[in-house]
Amino acid sequence: MLILPIKRKWYDMIRSGEKKEEYRDIKPYYSSRFKNMVSLNHVPEEEFVKALRKMKYGLPFNEIVLRAGYSLLSPAIRVEGSLRIGRGKRKWGAEPGKEYYILRIEGKEDLLTDDWKPWKRGDARAD
What is the C-alpha separation between 22 and 45, in angstroms, rounded? Predict the structure, then answer.
């Protein structure tokens, strides 16, 4: 399972359904993780990127966890969808004219929310 930290702003927008894509730079770091995720780690990075650029709908994935920060206690959601390469939307954090790995989110499930934290709900905090 791939776990990707994201800014809280983007996490909240994805959780609410407002943001339907998450972007990652096309770099060896992400290439290796995405290749492993879709069981194509034997394919050279250049070929993987080239093939994804040609795909209209991308490669399906069924489990990526997006976490609002780096802590194990940060809110998190499990997403499924497709991976492709293209230009993202500025309102969702992409730079104009820049290509990204695009994680198209087609389904999501809460894993950990702020609701479980008693101090976030206003309950008395046990010491």
Answer: 20
